[in-house]
Specification:
The protein is mainly alpha-helical and 257 residues long. The chain has helices at 2-15, 27-30, 37-57, 62-77, 80-93, 98-106, 112-129, 134-155, 166-173, 176-197, 199-224, 229-256. It has one domain. The protein contains 12 helices and no strands.
């Protein structure tokens, strides 16, 4: 029981800003830590649902609600995955060989394409979050668990671009089969909930997440020779945005039909 608690604490302290007891990272408290990663998404989704409720209850504007819903994932996660999105944007836009792209991922300086990508990302996220309804907010909330389940599955399944770095560390220290199965269970439960909430909207959101996951695998192998922490962050952010966009567009399609 103590080992599972420590694995949970390590996962939340790494991937969120939620205060956690401090434990030294070792083989025992990291081998199951990725199993708890999707629970960070559960917290984000729960907070986001209640935030929308309070915004509607107090008659806040759509724009204000959109800003709050956009910022909640960033505040809870601490923006750790956004760093990967921006670094990957710089690397992909460099048109350099694989080795040079991997060096760009490690560069702490933000290039022009990182800034452009960040601005466009938040504008898109804000625009679609402003259109979120009572129905779609539930699907989007589940999506934060799904995206992390897919990410955890990739960490212990996909090839690492290098034998060093955060993803390589978690991959090496994880009980791969256990993490793989548990991550898939999160994804299956998430997909089941999406379909239960709305077969059409949920189905569109599921399709969007799977297409992003496929792109993530193909792009990472082709451009970088595998995945690393920055690419994992890139996938998570794009997957979350894709689910938000798919849910909102799916609801518009429902209204038109």
């Amino acid at each position: 029981m103590k080992t599972f608690f420590q694995n949970w604490a390590v996962s939340f302290s790494m991937y969120s800003k939620i205060p956690m007891p401090h434990f030294e990272w070792n083989n025992d408290n990291m081998k199951y830590s990725m199993c708890f990663f999707p629970l960070v998404g559960v917290v984000i989704g729960f907070v986001q649902m209640w935030a929308r409720y309070f915004c509607v209850h107090f008659h806040m504007s759509q724009a204000f609600t959109g800003v709050i819903l956009t910022l909640i994932p960033v505040v809870i996660s601490g923006g750790i995955h956004l760093d990967g999105l921006l670094d990957t944007a710089d690397a992909l836009s460099s048109n350099q060989p694989k080795e040079r792209k991997l060096e760009i991922l490690k560069d702490s300086h933000a290039g022009a394409f990182a800034i452009i990508t960040g601005v466009c990302y938040f504008l898109l996220d804000f625009a679609f979050m402003s259109e979120v309804s009572w129905l779609t907010v539930y699907i989007i909330a589940v999506g934060y668990m799904v995206s992390r389940g897919l990410s955890g599955f990739a960490v212990v399944t996909f090839k690492c671009a290098k034998n060093s770095g955060l993803v390589a560390t978690f991959s090496d220290m994880s009980q791969r089969m256990v993490v793989r199965v548990v991550s898939l269970i999160y994804v299956i439960i998430g997909y089941g909930l999406m379909i239960f909430i709305s077969p059409l909207i949920g189905g569109i959101a599921i399709l969007a997440s799977l297409l992003v996951f496929l792109y993530y695998r193909v792009m990472s192998y082709r451009q970088f020779g595998g995945i690393n922490g920055d690419l994992a962050g890139f996938f998570l952010q794009i997957c979350e945005l894709a689910i938000v966009m798919a849910a909102v567009v799916g609801e518009k399609i429902c209204y038109l039909s």
